[in-house]
């Protein structure tokens, strides 16, 4: 038993040392391998994260653009409605003005007709008075002529 | 004589402890006592087995100075396990709610938790069996070879206790002490497994000297411990890689959704832009006397 003691101790000692070395090598390899994989994945992640941030910024931009466009659309729609309303109001005013003109014209016609009628009546009265005056003048002339003839007879 | 004295002194204490456990059964104290006695039981069981192995690795078995503590430690461990059992069976504060006393007797296998609970009870029974057969009378009746076979059940007890503790032990799984206790529990398992391997090889007469067995024990501790640490490192690395991969997948999914959303809002903006242009055009046409479109 004693004569093999040294060999046994050496064998188990060597096996233990080899085992430790294998484990250390395995740990180093594993650690390196995981570091490499993690690094690759982290790079992918960084690219995606950067893209996400870029898209987030883009989203913010287009959302603010959308808000701006909606506000513009509201303004323009409001402006269009106001223009339409103004147009409608303008049409109504024109119609009122035309009616007033027509009314004024009718009044003028009526006044003209009245004036014409008055004028005609005045002219008739003047003509009647003239005729009467002429008739009176004629009667007077006739009277002057007839009286001397009677005395002479 | 000493063993008998210990047992005689422990009996009244046990009765008092049963009464105390029943009176505390709905309080947090009984749950804490169950945990403390569980942890102590495991630690003392480990030390008992380790002392036996140290004796096995000694050049001359009779020269192992610490081995004289083996039997008192084994009795004390059984005593602690009994306290753990009593506390657990009485406890109605947390885990014991909804369980009956019969569920603690080692014959309940209804679900995973009951199986693990029953494993603990069966380990306790085995300890009682080993303890009973280790008395002078027991050894005389069984004879050395049969007694040794029964005594080998202590390894089974340890492995059952390990499975029971790792799966049910709050302090090993979730408590604030878990990060410290769990590696210790794992290390104890590695040491006992390595010792068992060494013992098996010694039984097969692989070693030609006690020093060979000692070196082999160190070799197996490094072999199993290294494998466990390596597996833990591998798992940790895989977890990190999985975590980053999951982050990448989530970010990619976010990016895809954002691309779709950006395109959708872009289209919507184009439509609004057209509407604006059309409205402006209609307005201009209306103002200049033309006929509006749309």
Could you walk me through the main structural features you see in this protein, from its secondary elements to its overall organization?
The complex is a heterodimer of chains A (153) and B (294). By secondary structure, chain A is mainly α. Chain A has a domain at 9-105. Chain A has 1 helix and no strands. The longest helix of chain A is centred in the middle third of the chain and has 148 residues, at 5-152. The termini of chain A are far apart. Chain B has 294 residues and is an all-alpha fold. Chain B has a domain at 2-175. Chain B has 9 helices and no strands. In chain B, α2 packs antiparallel against α3 (70-90). Chains A and B meet through α1 of A and α9 of B.
β-strand percent of chain B reads under 5%
Kindly state the percentage of residues in helix of chain A. Answer: over 70%
Distance between the termini of chain A: 222 Å
What kind of sheet is the major sheet of chain B?
A: none
Largest sheet of chain A: none
Order of helices and strands of chain A: H
* Beta-strand segment tally of chain A: 0
Can you write the helix and strand succession of chain B as a string? Answer: HHHHHHHHH
Q: What oligomeric state do the depicted chains represent?
A: heterodimer
Average residue-wise pLDDT of chain B: 88
Number of strands of chain B: 0
Low-pLDDT segments, ≥5 res of chain A: none
Radius of gyration of chain A: 65 Å
Question: Brief overview, please?
Answer:
With 153 residues, chain A is mainly α.
List the helices and strands and how they pair.
The complex is a heterodimer of chains A (153) and B (294).
Chain A: H1 5-152
Chain B: H1 2-23, H2 28-57, H3 70-90, H4 112-133, H5 136-151, H6 153-168, H7 170-173, H8 178-203, H9 210-288
Helix pairs in contact in B: 1-3, 2-3, 2-6, 2-8, 3-4, 4-5, 4-6, 6-8, 8-9
Keywords:
heterodimer, A: mainly alpha, 0% strand, B: 294 residues
